[in-house]
Amino acid sequence: MQNFSQILSYITEKEKDILNFKDSPQKLYEPIEYILSLGGKKIRPALALMSFNLFSDNFDEVIYQALAIEMYHNFTLMHDDLMDKALLRRGKAVVHEKWDANTAILSGDAMLVYAYQLIEKTPSCFLPDVLQLFSKTAMEVFKGQQYDMEFETRTDISNNDYLKMIRLKTAVLLACALKIGAVLGNANDENATWLYDFGINLGLAFQLKDDLLDVYGNSEKFGKNIGGDILCNKKTFLLISALENANEKQKEELLNWMQLTTFDKEEKINRFTSIYNETNARLLCEQEIDNYYIKAIEALKHVSVADDKKQPLLSLTELLMQRES
Amino acid sequence: MQNFSQILSYITEKEKDILNFKDSPQKLYEPIEYILSLGGKKIRPALALMSFNLFSDNFDEVIYQALAIEMYHNFTLMHDDLMDKALLRRGKAVVHEKWDANTAILSGDAMLVYAYQLIEKTPSCFLPDVLQLFSKTAMEVFKGQQYDMEFETRTDISNNDYLKMIRLKTAVLLACALKIGAVLGNANDENATWLYDFGINLGLAFQLKDDLLDVYGNSEKFGKNIGGDILCNKKTFLLISALENANEKQKEELLNWMQLTTFDKEEKINRFTSIYNETNARLLCEQEIDNYYIKAIEALKHVSVADDKKQPLLSLTELLMQRES
Question: Which domain holds residue A42?
Fold first, then answer.
C-alpha cells in the first residue's frame, strides 16, 4: 500500500520510461511533451493506481492504462483550451498560442490515439472491458464539453443541467480511472461498480470545489486568476443558485452585468461575489460539495476490502476537498 | 464473392442499421451524420470487405471494422478541412463553415472515439491485432498530415519526401483496411502482409492519380475545381518533377508564380499545366502511377487464393486507375 506522494513518484518515473516523444515529425510530438510537462495534479492516474492497490500490488500491471487516462485528459485540455480560446494553462502559454491552432488540433488528435496505444497494452483477458469503458467515458466527456459550450449562450440552465454537464465533463473520467484500476486488480463487479460510484461523487464534489475556488480561492495558490468564471458569465452552480435565490434587485444587477461587454473586471467580480454571499449561493455550493463528499465516502465504504487499505484513497479525497488550489 | 456495387449496397444498408446519431446532445452528432451523408466512394470499407471475402463469406463479421475505418477516414476529412481552411467537401459546405470551428473539432474528436467503439466489436481473439493495427495506422495518418502541412512552407521537397508523405497520409489506411479484412477472414500472416503491401501500392497510385486529376481531370466529374493544387502551390509529384526538370526559364516562371499573392487564377493554372507538359512532369507522374499499379497487382498475385476470387479487387483497382473523377 502506497501513499499519494509515493504513487506520484512512481508515475513520474514510469512516464519517462514509457512515453516516447522522440519520433518524427518532431512538430507532432513536441506539443504533446510540452502540455504533459506543465505538470498538473495527476489525480486520475493516481486514482487508478490507488484503486488497483486495493486488490493487487504490482503497479506495472496498471501503469499503461493510468497513463492512457492522463494522456486522454491532457488531450481534452489541449482541444478545450483551443475551443475556449484560453491563453494560459497552469501559468504557461497554451499550445495554440505557443504554436498555432492547427498544431493543437493535430497533436491533440495524436494524443487521443496515443492514449489508445497505451490501452492496447492491456492483457487480452481485460482488454474488451477496459477498451469499452475507456471509449464510453471518452465519448461522455465530449458530450459534457458540448453541453458546456451550449450552456454559454443559453439562459435557462438549472442546477440539475449543470450537475449533469459536470458529471459528463469531469466526474466520469475520475470514475473510469478508478474502475479500470479495479478491473485490472481483478476486483469483482460489485467492488468495481462501487469504486465507479465513488469516482462519480468525488468528481462532482471536485468540480464544484473548483468552481468555488475560482471565486473564493487564493489566486497565487490557484495558479490562475480569480473570477475567470464570473468574467465570462459561466453558469456554474454558484451563479445559477444566486440567480434562483436573488431578490428582484440582485437579479437585475446580475443580469445587467452579464449583458455588458465592457466593464471594470474587479468591480464585476466584487459585485458577483457579494451577491453570491448575500443569496447564500456560496453556502449552497459548500453544502452540495459536502453532500457529494459524503456520498463518495459511503460508496467507498461498500468496497469489500480492509479499511486500512482504503487510507490512500481517503487521504487523497480529503486533500482534494481541503485544497486551496 | 460479390462485386463492388453489391458490396456498396451492403455497406450502405448496414450503415443505417449500425450507426446511431440520435443520441444527445444533437449538436455533437448532427455534423457526423452530415459529413457521412456527403457520400464519398467508400473505397476503404469496400477494400476491407473484398479482402475478407477472399477467405470468408459472412460480411457481418467484418462490417463493424469496415465502418470504423470509414468513420476514421471521415474524421480526418473533418479535421483536415478545418486545418486547410477548405470551404467545400464533395460540393457541399464543410462542417466548420456550416457550423463552426469548435463543432468541427469536437464532432471530429467524437468520430475518432466512435471509430474505436466500432473496433471494440471485434471478437476478442482478433481484438489485440486489429486494435494495434488500427491505432498504428491512425498515428501514421497524423504524421502524414503533419508532413503535408510542413511541406507547404518548405521549398526543398523531393519526390521521395512527397511519396513518403502520401504513403503515410493516404496509402496506409487503404492497406490497413485490406489487412484488417484479411485478419478477420482468418488469413495467414503471409497473405495478410501481401494484402497490406497491395494496399500500400494501390494507395500510392491512387493518390498520384488524384493529383493528376486535380490538374488534368474533368472538373464536373471530379466534383471540385481543377487546379486547386496549383493555386495553393502544393508540392505534388507533378510540381516537384516540373521544378526538377525545368530549364532556367521554366523554373523561373514557376517560382515567380509561386511568390505572387494576387494573380489571374486561370492564367496560373494554364501556365503550370503547360510547363507540366513541356517538362514531361505529366508523363513522369503517369509512369509512376503505372509503376505502383504494377507493384500492387504483383502483391495481389502472391495472395494464395484462387484467381477468380481476386476479381472484385482487380476490378476495383482497374476502376480507380481508369477513373476520371
Answer: 4-322
The CA–CA distances, whole Å, from A250 to A231, A241, A257, A260 equal 17, 12, 11, 16
Per-residue pLDDT tens over the stretch B237-262: 999 999 999 999 999 999 999 999 99
Query: B29 vs A315, B38, B103, CA distance in Å?
Result: 40, 15, 10
Q: Is B92 helix (H, G, I), strand (E, B) or coil?
A: strand
Which positions in chain A touch B105 (Cβ < 8 Å)? 79, 82-83, 105
CA-based Rg of chain A, rounded to a whole angstrom?
A: 20
Per-residue DSSP letter, A219 = H
E strands, chain A, are 88-89, 92-93
The CATH number of the domain holding residue B37 is 1.10.600.10
Domain count, chain A: 1
Chain B nearest-CA distance from A139, in A, is 6
Taking contacts as CB-CB distances below 8 angstroms, the residues of chain A near B128 are 120, 124, 127
Contact A135 B127 (CB under 8 A): no
Pairs of residues, one from chain A and one from chain B, whose beta carbons lie less than 8 Å apart: 102
Q: How far apart are CA A107 and CA B302, in angstroms?
A: 38
B187 conformational bin, left if phi > 0, alpha if psi -120 to 50, beta if neither: beta
Question: Closest by alpha carbon to B20, among B59, B66, B71, B61?
Answer: B71
pTM over cut 0.90: yes
DSSP A72-128: HHHHHHHHHHHHTT--EETTEE-HHHHS-HHHHHHHHHHHHHHHHHHHTTS-TTTHH
Do A324 and A222 touch, CB atoms closer than 8 A?
yes
ipTM of the assembly?
Answer: 0.96
- pLDDT score of B155 more than 80: yes
Report phi then psi at A36, rounded to 5.
-70, -30
